[in-house]
């Protein structure tokens, strides 16, 4: 419901309407982090309407069920997709029946934030241990994936420029496997702070927290919730030149293959901490706000940095999120388990 | 401009001008400019001293630097002849157009550089330094424990820990530091908040001297770019931007052999770095212009080095046809681009990035690859490193020497690069804060010794140079400020 692109759109649209009804337009605008998306072929006519309203902008077509950047292309003219529609039946490779594959057409972010002339997106990990009530954890580490080539809108056909998935980058002609083309989010946060100052960067990261929470809230009611289930999501976020974060997609089985030593360690630690939280040995009390590299960001309501879970929040609390901050997980785990033992 | 008023009286003109300079901020700018000159230029020598003495007072050092330069130039010229590539040539118009179009993405170019080799690498330079001898010094003693056991065998004066403690007094245990007292466990009210507030005040006052004092305790990330620019007295005026654009057009019009060396260096070092690869294009934009910048020649008055001279084709030996090659007199070596890479984290506007780098080069970096007796020169840094290690970790030093792993062989490359590419970027920037704050490179030698001290237990167990290198291969997890603080202020001597 969250991870197939068309369902995500549906759920977000519905949630936004609900928010607008319940809390007003201002609150609903907080959901405007998802680029305009239309399911194809179902919403073809709605899409054409929107397309005609904004001539000249670029759109991206993505198959909902596939991953690793397969089947994705960019277009600017309706002619491009009319040709593509005619181009034979597009089948879902995994199914045997010749079923028309579902795609989404999404507005392409034309002004991505560039570093060194390169486009990048962020991969952030969110662990949900319960949907109703919603309990979500945010991992402090994550990474920024860079495109190997310089960004330009002139080369729509150049997959390698626009798609920052490591899977696609791996097949680009000048890909050097030693390079990795990733930055840890800590580096990115430092870079942005040096360039824009701490306040703007705080706002950017707070907006990202908003994305995680709202997207999860939008599917709260439709996901089959089970106390004994957990879900680790990989969120893909794109930052534009105005320092606004956009949600590209949510991955249910984020790639755990490692492209470098640093990457390997991140993913190992991520898994270890996930298992700590899932807590099959029943060591935790359930009142923890931090376990290893995970910070509890939502516990049926916002979580504050100060105080413990039971204290009521005051007006100006600081959210318990530390994305891109120092991750001294080993130390924290040691202290945590020592205090639980006692 | 505001002096064209009828209120201006001739009697009080002197005072009025002084006031005007103060209120318009020009007094501060003048002060900053003077302060900058004081930092960069050596104190005036004896009037009878010849100009070489300002470059380097010791004759044997001058001689050694001269022979080293001859070697480098010979290597460059022979590469030039071998490859049949001229040292400099004008680009055909079509190529100029192409380069101009690609200016912001020169990294996408993949010229065939396989035949080019770096002119020299740090280890070649170390061999030269190891062979330095003062011909006037004869101590006649057999080598023993009391002699210097390291690779550098020249009797330069270097500081000991009590002197370093005094010089670096702001790094002591009782003074707040960024890199220590801003860690996650320390509440920001203790130090960080106040330090940031003071930093903002220093920037508002635009006072170079105050900024230099301030950064000794580290720069807050958001203020660092402005603070460094203030200390280096870089304001990116229209003239400066114009100058940079002029250099850029020089790059477009002429192709230099060193350009290929720069390309190769960037591709071999910065492009392969996990964090700096992103800034590849900026590095070309800075280094290609740097090679053509004749204003850099000014620093040779106080550097022991002399720019290599080359002659227009066919006019060998005729002084009228002598030109400095490259135009800025600096021949890049393997790893040179790493001096620029960390600055890309702070400055994004090419002309400003360029000026900051140029100023850092003519103040500090040039000392890391020229032979001189200056306390911040690489020779003194090596000697300082070895002396600190031998004095305070004699067992470790002796052990490493016995297994053929002279410590300087490992730490040399760190110091030559000012640790760029070896430390994590945030740690490197904290280190460079102190280089600017203390206007000295000695901290590099102290850090190198502190790293050995930190890993001493593991190093005592190794039995070969390769194993020692392996223990010290990865410095990316080190926190520099605690290491420095412990080594200087918390080690029992």
Helices and strands in order:
The complex is a heterodimer of chains A (342) and B (493).
Chain A lengths: L4 H19 L1 H5 L7 E4 L3 H10 L5 E5 L9 E3 L2 H9 L16 E5 L6 E2 L2 E13 L4 E16 L8 H4 L3 H4 L12 E3 H12 L1 H22 L11 E9 L5 E7 L9 H18 L11 E2 L2 E6 L29 H13 L1
Antiparallel strand pairs in A: 1-4, 2-3, 2-4, 5-6, 6-7, 6-9, 7-8, 7-12, 9-10, 11-12
Helix pairs in contact in A: 1-8, 7-8
Chain B lengths: L12 H12 L1 H15 L10 H5 L3 H25 L4 E3 L2 H9 L20 H9 L30 H7 L24 H14 L2 H7 L9 H8 L6 H16 E3 H12 L11 H12 L17 E3 L10 E3 L25 H14 L14 H15 L1 H9 L4 H10 L8 H14 L3 H13 L1 H5 L4 H7 L8 H10 L4
Q: Gist?
A:
The complex is a heterodimer of chains A (342) and B (493). With 342 residues, chain A is of the alpha+beta class. Chain A contains ten helices and twelve strands.
Low-confidence stretches of chain B: none
Largest sheet of chain B: 2 strands, antiparallel
- Residue share in β-strands of chain B: under 5%
Shape type of chain A: globular
Spatial extent as radius of gyration of chain A: 21 Å
Q: Evaluate the radius of gyration of chain B.
A: 24 Å
- The residue-averaged pLDDT of chain B reads 88
Q: Could you give me the name of the CATH homologous superfamily of the domain at 112-341 in chain A?
A: ATP-grasp fold, B domain
Query: How many β strands of chain B by DSSP?
Result: 4
Spatial order of the strands in the main sheet of chain B? 1-2
Described by strand count, sense and barrel closure, the largest sheet of chain A is: 8 strands, antiparallel
Q: CATH fold name of the domain at 112-341 in chain A, please? A: D-amino Acid Aminotransferase, Chain A, domain 1
């Amino acid at each position: 419901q969250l991870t197939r692109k068309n369902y995500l759109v549906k759920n977000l649209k519905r949630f936004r309407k609900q928010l607008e009804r319940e809390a007003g337009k201002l609150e609903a605008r907080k959901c405007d982090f998802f680029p305009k998306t239309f399911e194809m072929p179902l919403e073809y006519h709605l899409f054409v309407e929107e397309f005609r309203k904004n001539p000249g902008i670029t759109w991206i077509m993505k198959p909902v069920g596939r991953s690793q950047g397969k089947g994705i292309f960019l277009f600017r003219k309706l002619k491009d997709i009319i040709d593509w529609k005619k181009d034979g039946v597009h089948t879902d490779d995994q199914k045997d029946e010749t079923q028309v594959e579902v795609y989404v057409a999404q507005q392409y972010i034309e002004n991505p934030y560039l570093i060194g002339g390169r486009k990048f997106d962020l991969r952030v990990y969110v662990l949900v241990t319960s949907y109703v009530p919603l309990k979500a954890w945010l991992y402090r580490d994550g990474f920024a994936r860079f495109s190997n080539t310089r960004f330009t809108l002139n080369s729509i056909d150049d997959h390698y420029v626009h798609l920052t998935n490591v899977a696609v980058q791996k097949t680009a002609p000048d890909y050097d496997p030693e390079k990795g083309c990733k930055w840890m989010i800590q580096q990115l946060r430092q870079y942005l702070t040096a360039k824009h100052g701490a306040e703007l960067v705080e706002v950017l990261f707070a907006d990202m927290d908003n994305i995680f929470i709202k997207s999860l809230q939008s599917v709260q009611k439709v996901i089959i919730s089970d106390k004994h289930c957990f879900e680790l999501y990989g969120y893909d976020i794109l930052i534009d030149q105005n320092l606004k974060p956009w949600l590209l997609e949510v991955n249910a089985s984020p790639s755990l293959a490692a492209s470098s030593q640093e990457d390997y360690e991140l993913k190992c630690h991520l898994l270890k901490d996930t298992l700590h939280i899932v807590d099959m040995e029943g060591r935790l009390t359930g009142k923890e706000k931090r376990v290893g590299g995970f910070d509890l960001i939502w516990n049926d309501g916002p979580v504050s940095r100060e105080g413990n879970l039971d204290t009521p929040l005051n007006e100006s609390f600081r959210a318990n999120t530390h994305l891109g901050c120092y991750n001294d997980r080993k130390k924290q785990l040691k202290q945590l388990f020592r205090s639980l033992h006692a | 401009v505001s002096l064209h008023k009828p209120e201006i009286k001739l009697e009080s003109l002197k005072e009025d001008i002084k006031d005007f300079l103060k209120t318009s901020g020009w007094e501060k700018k003048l002060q900053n400019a003077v302060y900058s000159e004081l930092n960069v230029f050596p104190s005036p020598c004896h009037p009878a001293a010849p100009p070489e003495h300002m470059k380097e007072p010791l004759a044997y050092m001058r001689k050694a630097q001269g022979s080293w330069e001859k070697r480098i130039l010979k290597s460059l010229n022979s590469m030039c002849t071998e490859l049949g590539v001229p040292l400099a040539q004008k680009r055909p118009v079509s190529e100029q157009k192409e380069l101009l179009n690609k200016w912001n993405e020169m990294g996408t170019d993949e010229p065939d550089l396989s035949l080019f080799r770096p002119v020299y690498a740090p280890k070649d330079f170390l061999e030269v330094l190891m062979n330095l001898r003062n011909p006037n010094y004869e101590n006649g003693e057999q080598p023993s424990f009391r002699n210097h056991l390291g690779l550098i065998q020249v009797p330069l004066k270097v500081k000991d820990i009590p002197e370093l403690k005094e010089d670096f007094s702001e790094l002591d245990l009782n003074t707040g530091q960024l890199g220590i007292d801003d860690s996650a466990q320390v509440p920001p009210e203790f130090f960080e908040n106040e330090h940031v507030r003071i930093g903002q005040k220093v920037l508002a006052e635009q006072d170079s001297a105050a900024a230099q004092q301030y950064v000794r305790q580290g720069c807050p990330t958001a203020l660092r770019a402005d603070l460094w620019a203030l200390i280096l007295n870089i304001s990116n005026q229209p003239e400066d931007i114009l100058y940079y654009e002029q250099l850029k057009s020089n790059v477009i019009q002429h192709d230099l052999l060193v350009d290929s060396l720069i390309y190769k260096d960037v591709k071999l070092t910065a492009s392969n770095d996990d964090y700096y690869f992103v800034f590849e294009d900026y590095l070309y934009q800075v280094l290609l212009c740097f090679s053509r910048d004749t204003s850099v020649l000014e620093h040779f008055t106080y550097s022991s080095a002399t720019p290599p001279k080359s002659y227009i084709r066919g006019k060998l030996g005729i002084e009228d046809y002598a030109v400095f090659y490259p135009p800025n007199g600096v021949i890049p070596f393997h790893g040179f681009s790493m001096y620029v890479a960390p600055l890309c984290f702070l400055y994004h506007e090419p002309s400003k990035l360029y000026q900051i780098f140029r100023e850092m080069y003519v103040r500090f970096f040039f000392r890391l690859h020229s032979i001189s007796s200056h306390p911040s020169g690489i020779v003194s840094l090596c000697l300082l490193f070895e002396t600190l290690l031998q004095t305070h970790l004699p067992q470790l030093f002796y052990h490493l020497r016995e297994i053929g792993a002279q410590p300087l062989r490992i730490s040399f490359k760190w110091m030559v690069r000012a640790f760029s590419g070896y430390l994590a970027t945030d740690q490197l920037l904290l280190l460079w804060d102190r280089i600017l704050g203390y206007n000295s490179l000695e901290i590099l030698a102290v850090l190198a010794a502190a790293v050995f001290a930190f890993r001493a237990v593991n190093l005592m167990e190794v039995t070969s140079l390769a194993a020692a290198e392996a223990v010290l291969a990865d410095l990316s997890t080190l926190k520099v400020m605690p290491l420095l603080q412990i080594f200087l202020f918390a080690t029992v001597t």
